[in-house]
Amino acid sequence: MTHANTSYRLLLLAAASGAAFAGAAPALAQTAPQEPETGVEDVIVTGTRAPNRSRLDTLSPVDVVTAEDLQNRGTTELASALAQSVPSLTFQRPAVTDGTDSIRPATLRGLSPDQTLVLVNSARRHASALVNVNGSVGRGSAAVDLNTIPTGALDRIEVLRDGASAQYGSDAIAGVINLRLREADSGGGATFTAGQYYTTVDTARTERDEQDGASLTASVWQGFALGGDGFVTLSAELVSRDPTNRSDLDPRVTPNAVTARFGDPEVDQWTVFANAGKPLGSGWEAYGWAGYQDRESESAAFPRLPNNTNNVPAIYPDGFLPLIAVNSRDLSLAGGVRGGIGGWDADFNLVYGRNALDFRTENSLNSTYGGASPTSFDSGALIYDQLVFGADLARRYEVGLYGPLNVAVGLEARREGYQIEAGQPESWDRGPLGGNTALAGGAQGFVGFQPSNEVDEDRTAVGVYLDVEAPVTDQFTVAGAVRFEDYSDFGTATTGKLSARYDFTPAFALRGSVSTGFRAPSLQQSHFTSTASVIQNGAVVETGAFPATHPVAAALGAQPLDAETSVNYTFGTVIRLGDFDLTVDAYRIEIEDQIVLSENISRGFSPQVASLLDPLGVQAARFFLNGVDTTTQGVDIVGRYRLDTAAYGDWDFTVAANFNDVEVTRIPTSSSVLNPVPPLFARSRIETIQQGTPDTKVSANADWSYGRWGLTARATYYGDVVQPGSTPANDYSTGAKTVADFEGRFQPNERITLALGVDNAFDEYPDAVPATLNANGVLGFPFYSPFGFNGRFVYARIGLNW
After folding, report:
1. pLDDT tens sequence across 397-427
2. Which of the following CATH numbers is that of domain 3-210+218-248+260-302+323-362+390-395+405-428+452-801: 3.10.129.10, 2.40.170.20, 1.10.730.10, 3.40.980.10?
3. pTM to 2 decimals?
């Protein structure tokens, strides 16, 4: 089916659904809609600055995921648990992609990971220092690492599925994820979760049973009173997780054997978080939070066989498997005050965030040093930090009969910094044997950052906004927002948003919005530079990544980066009938000048390209550039029904679906004066954007509780995903799959909960990579798979509360 036909089908579905629901709605009434008595505390703060809005009263679609939702999962990773709960969010598990194995990005509505803004307590969260430069979904992005915040520190998560740049600033093209921290002045809890994969790995060449990936998570939180009216909530989490391996047999060795490690990395991490609030008198309150995480992870590169040119048999007579170790240290600090000033509700805050990634290359060597080569290397570091000052003022004006006019104004001032630090010389240099051009310099698997790669850059940005929401009648509400941003490095941007909602009856409403958005080029994209070992058609190619302003990049066709821009349209319905509610929201997102990472332009392309690259000691070059336009269309459907019975317990049913189509409508053209002109963006990159995330995701979830017993059953259908090659013959796909999860719970008393569960109970895998496309056996399965490729996971959990 073509993209145009798919888009047409999605829009027809939305229109038909809206018409059917409108026809089923009761006759018009002149009374204001009332929130049904559901017993669900779902007042939200994301996407609106009007107080006491529920998720069903909003002018834009918002998903609410509670702490209990996150806990009743086998996974203890926040991003994985969130992907199981939000239909339009995908969290893939890339492997053999260097740092991206450890710092995995999430995508909303199939868009780039950095096109979703992440907030903590409604304040901008800092991004990771990592920029994804290898072949994963989200290549070229520098996104927030959701897994730096433990689930035990959270009260709930709100996911705004609508463009919101006019409300929150840069990055909110796809939507906003707002992580709201737990607030408790007493009580506490602890959770201990242990699990392991018990699976049959059926690759193209073999079938084997595996028991690996053992994990243990210990999480605890405690609330303390701060004086007689304040609170401090402390949280801590420890995680230990063994690696998994889903490689196929390597046909290059006799007998055939598994020589690679393709799967989840080994992880050891600890995290602490604190959240506090204290009234100051006269209606003012001080608040703040702080968090720190230390994560040690280790993944594998491609194996080097004994006869590999870059092996030193005196060190590794049987060959070697380079390991890439990443130490991520993530810090966040925030403090603020809020209260009343002249009739305005005021909030002033200062938020600092810092992410530092230290890279080591282990079990490796630098072949140009021969037998004197180290086997462990300090490969350098990436550091990103962000300081944000926010000032927000809101006021309600009683101007009519139908409710108050809500007015909000504010300012956000931000300073960002980005650094690259070089590794030890042996990690990047050419040693005594460097004159042998057949040998690659630097540490095998992950070449260290060089002194010429070192950068220390910063920028500032200031944004001001006006946000107004008003009831025109007792049934019709409109809202508008406008925002102006000024960046020190690329210029200015102005965005706007108009939203409206009409409640025909308390049971039926229509809502919609149109907005413009933008995303400023990140410092990581503007200044990242490195030399890396990149796998192309099974061969290792030393590739240099250069800033767009570098002379080599400019000669190859790069231009200074500019902001991405977007136009978002949404239209939806809200149905509320007693204990049943349903939302259907269709959307269209048009993005211009998306920032991407170019093709790897090889020295073999032309003598002119070779003359540019040879003095730098690299065989290929790549750089960031604007120029990709996309159109994304889809429909989100979320339905929920609650049934409470005395005889059969309490039931909570949820069905959520996302139908999504992404089409690339323009690709970059080169400004290079070289002849011939190198290609900047080829088929595999285009198809990754269009087919790298599922076009259909449907999840059905049932929660049952009766006395001391509880049960959760969930089935999630994922449409086919394509992991593209340079030609259609080199593509491989996941196939359409359904994954089923089950969990049973028992409470022997009010303080203890015991749980046993299995994720992917029927041991579902994506389709195996064909043997003809897997000459070295590394990639057993497509790592574009939206549900991973690890198989059945069995776990047990003990929960305590006091």
Report:
1. 988 777 889 999 999 999 999 999 999 999 9
2. 2.40.170.20
3. 0.92
